[in-house]
């Protein structure tokens, strides 16, 4: 039969291949199950468990970063007698850090009503435990700090009590700044000290990224709230500059399959988009004096990259080859 | 009588909890028959909910992986290798003319083997889940096992990403007791009453052996030697003692490489990453404070 139709030839080919290779892969046919597995590891199954965290966690990282670094800005403003800026920054710190952050954190728990169990123990070897304490202490400083500052600024009381309020506001605001820097950076440690390859391989970069994104976001938000002062503009340049450097760091410090979630797939795009928006783009916009655009670009960028890092964790944790590559013998 | 009968440590009453003796599991795939009795016994005794049935297409394994509602998982590996001195042949129809039927032919082409291994929480010497838990829900018991106290866990999910073996997981809605993290309890409740963990008790071939950790270690080493001598050249123990995990209390004999079993070749406890991460966090904190001071001092 020399005039076989094309389709019969195709079937012959398949038969040949089946005989030769023992398996015929094709569209819509998963040959993972046999006769010999052709996926990495055990049927391509994840070796470590990807994070179960949902949207609340990256949003909490974002809010916590803004809140913590706002308290730092408030301290700076207090030191240099910029009371209006200090008040605005403390309001941001309270709303983002003492109200929204705890709500988001509690919402993400599998059993929200047991939230207080977080404060049963103090474990310095658990970044999650440290974070719960940092957030609590931050709240315990920032709320009385704002109250004292407002009462003092509006001269509700006079005389010695007003002086006492001034001192109290100062102490609480500096306390907020200390816990605030930790609130903005510990989240990087939280991701860095896990079994997820793309996270632990970048455990040095993550706290720098999260902390600096927090600082830049706090400054950007205050600028958008109308505080267009050179000090905040300088911090905007600083943060965008650091983020640009981190973008370069990430593209140089590659670990092949082990951290490919950062460079490939949708997760890679989230990281890239986030870093470009809060790094080079924000910097250039600021150079051209387009401060509100720079601020918005930075805020969106740092929000996107927080989501990006959680998605990276999900992709990397589900990838057995990433785990094996990170443990090369 | 099955196995070693009532002499076996799998069937005897014991007082390890009271005596504070370290115990463990030694799981040996070379005798496992893939019956899944351990999976069933575990689910029944511990009242672990049914988390659905999916047809995986992966050999006879429709369980998939360990998780919040799967505390024993029997793996079914299909490998193009020989098992010991097993006589193998082409994967097509048997051909009586081929030397597959020639006695002792170990060199036949297209070797194929089926290996079953019952996976379980490793009860690590240095346990990532235990270190990570912010509520203190995860504790070390008198027998050296790692236990999640369900009523304390608030479901933060940090143990999930801190286990280097991907064992513990948060149980999703709408299952019973959803929201908390679950894993093998080493049948701590049974052990307190002098009973053997359910999986080991039902294992008909003693592929799962429960006992004193020191006894099991000796037994494991002996078994590897035995297998090596009878042609299982790729038999080895899986017990990462040289990494920061510091060894596991539920250890395995494996044929071939750990990767094929989805076991990490060099697992590390994530706490070793804390130092560099916190250093970076503190440096960033200080840099941010300095930048803020510079901003207000020089740009006002
Ligand atoms: S030890 Fe107990 S809880 Fe763990 S798998 Fe076996 S039967 Fe289940
Ligand atoms: S294997 Fe995972 S869940 Fe089990 S003790 Fe070790 S770290 Fe914890």
Question: How are the secondary structure elements laid out?
Answer:
The complex is a heterodimer of chains A (329) and B (300).
Chain A: H1 6-21, H2 56-79, H3 83-108, H4 127-153, H5 159-192, H6 197-200, H7 205-224, H8 230-252, H9 265-287, H10 291-317, H11 320-326
Helix pairs in contact in A: 2-3, 2-5, 2-7, 2-10, 3-4, 4-5, 5-7, 7-8, 7-10, 8-9, 9-10
Chain B: H1 16-19, E1 23-27, H2 37-46, E2 72-79, E3 113-120, H3 128-132, E4 138-140, E5 146-148, H4 158-162, E6 169-170, E7 181-182, H5 188-192, H6 198-202, E8 208-212, H7 213-229, E9 235-238, E10 250-255, H8 274-298
Parallel strand pairs in B: 1-10
Antiparallel strand pairs in B: 1-8, 2-3, 4-5, 6-7, 9-10
The complex binds iron/sulfur cluster (2 copies).
Portion in helices of chain B: 25-40%
| Secondary structural class of chain A | mainly alpha
Beta-strand portion of chain B reads 15-25%
Helix coverage percent of chain A: over 70%
Sheet/helix structural class of chain B: alpha+beta
The CATH fourth-level homologous superfamily of the largest domain in chain A: Formate dehydrogenase/DMSO reductase domain
The outline of chain B comes out as globular
Largest sheet of chain B: 4 strands, mixed
Order of helical and strand elements of chain B:
HEHEEHEEHEEHHEHEEH
Number of helices of chain A: 11
Oligomer: heterodimer
Radius of gyration based on Cα positions of chain B: 23 Å
CATH topology of the largest domain in chain B: Alpha-Beta Plaits
Which two protein chains have the largest interface (Cβ within 8 Å of the partner's Cβ), and how many residues from each?
A-B, 90 and 85 residues
* Strand percentage of chain A: under 5%
């Amino acid at each position: 039969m020399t005039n076989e139709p094309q389709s019969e030839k195709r079937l012959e080919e398949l038969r040949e291949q089946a005989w030769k290779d023992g398996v015929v892969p094709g569209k819509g046919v998963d040959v993972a199950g046999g006769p010999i597995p052709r996926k990495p590891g055990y049927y391509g199954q994840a070796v470590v468990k990807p994070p179960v965290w949902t949207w609340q966690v990256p949003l909490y990282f974002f809010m916590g970063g803004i809140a913590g670094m706002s308290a730092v800005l408030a301290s700076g403003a207090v030191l240099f007698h910029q009371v209006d800026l200090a008040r605005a920054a403390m309001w941001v710190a309270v709303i983002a850090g003492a109200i929204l952050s705890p709500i988001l954190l509690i919402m993400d728990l599998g059993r929200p009503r047991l939230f207080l169990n977080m404060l049963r123990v103090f474990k310095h070897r658990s970044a999650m435990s440290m974070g719960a304490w940092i957030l609590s202490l931050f709240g315990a400083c920032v709320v009385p700090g704002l109250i004292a500052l407002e009462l003092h600024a509006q001269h509700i009381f006079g005389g010695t009590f007003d002086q006492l309020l001034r001192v109290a506001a100062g102490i609480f605001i500096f306390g907020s700044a200390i816990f605030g820097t930790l609130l903005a950076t510990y989240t990087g440690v939280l991701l860095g000290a896990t079994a997820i390859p793309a996270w632990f391989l970048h455990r040095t970069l993550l706290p720098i990224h999260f902390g600096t994104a927090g600082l830049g976001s706090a400054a950007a938000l205050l600028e958008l709230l109308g505080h267009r002062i050179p000090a905040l503009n300088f911090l905007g340049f600083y943060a965008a500059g650091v983020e640009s450097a981190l973008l370069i760091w990430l593209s140089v410090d590659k670990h092949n399959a082990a951290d490919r979630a950062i460079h490939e797939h949708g997760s890679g795009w989230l990281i890239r988009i986030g870093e470009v928006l809060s790094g080079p783009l924000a910097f250039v916009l600021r150079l051209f004096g387009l401060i509100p655009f720079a601020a918005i670009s930075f805020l969106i960028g740092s929000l996107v990259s927080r989501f990006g890092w959680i998605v990276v964790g999900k992709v990397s944790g589900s990838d057995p080859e990433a785990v094996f590559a990170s443990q090369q013998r | 009588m099955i196995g070693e009968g009532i002499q076996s440590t799998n069937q005897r009453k014991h007082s390890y909890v009271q005596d504070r003796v370290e115990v463990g599991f030694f799981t040996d795939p070379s005798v496992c028959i893939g019956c899944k009795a351990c999976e069933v016994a575990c689910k029944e005794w511990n009242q672990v909910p049914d988390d659905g049935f999916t047809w995986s297409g992966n050999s006879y394994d429709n369980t998939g992986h360990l998780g919040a509602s799967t505390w024993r998982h029997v793996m079914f590996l299909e490998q193009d290798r020989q098992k010991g001195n097993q006589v193998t042949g082409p994967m097509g129809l048997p051909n009586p003319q081929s030397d597959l039927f020639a006695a002792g032919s170990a060199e036949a082409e297209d070797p194929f083997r089926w290996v079953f291994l019952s996976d379980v929480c490793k009860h690590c010497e240095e346990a990532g889940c235990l270190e990570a838990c912010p509520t203190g829900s995860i504790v070390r018991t008198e027998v050296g096992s790692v236990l999640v106290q369900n009523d304390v866990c608030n479901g933060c999910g940090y143990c999930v990403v801190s286990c280097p073996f991907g064992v513990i997981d948060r149980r999703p809605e709408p299952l019973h007791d959803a929201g908390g993290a679950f894993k093998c309890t080493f049948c701590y409740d049974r052990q307190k009453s002098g009973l053997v963990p359910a999986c080991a008790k039902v294992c008909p071939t003693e592929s799962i052996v429960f006992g004193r950790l020191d006894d099991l270690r000796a037994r494991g080493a002996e078994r590897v030697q035995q297998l090596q001598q009878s042609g299982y050249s790729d038999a080895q123990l899986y017990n990462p003692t040289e990494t920061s995990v510091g060894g596991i209390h539920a250890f395995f004999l494996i044929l071939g490489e750990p990767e094929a079993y989805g076991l990490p070749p060099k697992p590390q406890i994530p706490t070793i990453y804390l130092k560099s991460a916190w250093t970076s966090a503190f440096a960033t904190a200080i840099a941010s404070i300095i930048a803020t001071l510079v901003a207000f001092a020089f740009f006002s």
